[in-house]
Amino acid sequence: MLNFLFWVHAALAVLQNGTRKDEILRKGKQSLGVFTVVQFPNIVCTSTTSGRNGTCYTSSECTAKGGSGSGSCASSFGVCCVFEKTCGGTTSENCTYFTSADRTLGTACKLTVCKSSSSVCQIRLDFETFILSNPVTATTITIGPSTAAAGSGNSLGECQKDTFAVSSPCGKAPPVICGTNTGEHMYVPVCDQCNEITSSFGSSSTATTSAFTIKISMVECNSKIKAPEGCTQYFTGTTGTLSTYN
């Protein structure tokens, strides 16, 4: 009789423990149901910083990538992350702003740009501000005989004080430019090797620390704004004005 009662108590204890475990698991599942994982695309967003767009990231992603949160996006689940770089920086972020804030006369200001993903085929540079020293405008003969004759020439149009150039490891590089090009743009092909944007300021340059602000956009291979191969500029409008650099 005592053995029988012992086994009854033991069985009841097991059932009670099992019930408690089931209840704990059920409550745990109910608690986990409160949390929802929110995902959103990392698309271009409008920041609260004047004249700057950004990319929509979580706050922690923005900080980890070296950006600055400026306003919200994705129904306030994300922040509009603004990326600004100056001389000596590196970026692989879409919608990065390259400025001449740290430029020093007599030296070069460089930014290394690497494509953000394998689906990117070009980068587009929009010159929101671009005011370097002008190219040579004098027609004085500087090459060959001092008087106009066979073999003589001048330096008209050459960039001698300041230069702006973009390397292109996998295609034809754009021309070297200088002068005022505010409002112009430039397409550059990209590949697995990174591109270098270099602006060299002469010791007698008239360019200030606000000489340029350049918006860098990653252009995907299937994008509607992708320029035809070999194009340095690409226009889609039916009317407008075309002008040369420099």
Question: Can you describe what's shown?
Answer:
This protein has 246 residues and is an alpha+beta fold. The protein is built from two helices and 14 strands, in the order αββαββββββββββββ. The strands form three sheets. Strands 1, 2, 3, 4, 6, 8, 12 and 14 form an eight-stranded mixed beta sheet that branches. It has a four-stranded mixed beta sheet with strand order 5-7-13-11, with no helix packed on it. The radius of gyration is 30 Å and the shape is elongated. The N and C termini lie far apart (107 Å). Mean pLDDT is 86; it is low at 1-15 and 24-29.
Shape: elongated
Largest sheet descriptor = 8 strands, mixed
Low-confidence stretches: 1-15, 24-29
The helix/strand class is: alpha+beta
Gap from first CA to last CA: 107 Å
Average residue pLDDT: 86
Beta percentage is: 25-35%
Number of helices: 2
- Helix share, percent: 10-25%
Work out the radius of gyration: 30 Å
Number of strands: 14
Brief account:
The protein is an alpha+beta fold. The protein has helices spanning 2-32, 59-64, and strands at 44-46, 53-57, 68-73, 78-85, 89-91, 96-99, 108-113, 120-130, 141-143, 153-154, 162-166, 185-189, 195-201, 212-220. The longest helix has 31 residues, at 2-32.
Question: What labels describe this entry?
Answer:
246 residues; alpha+beta; eight-stranded mixed beta sheet; four-stranded mixed beta sheet; 14 strands; disordered N terminus
List the helices and strands and how they pair.
Layout: H1 2-32, E1 44-46, E2 53-57, H2 59-64, E3 68-73, E4 78-85, E5 89-91, E6 96-99, E7 108-113, E8 120-130, E9 141-143, E10 153-154, E11 162-166, E12 185-189, E13 195-201, E14 212-220
Parallel strand pairs: 4-6, 5-7
Antiparallel strand pairs: 1-2, 2-4, 3-4, 6-14, 7-13, 8-12, 8-14, 9-10, 11-13
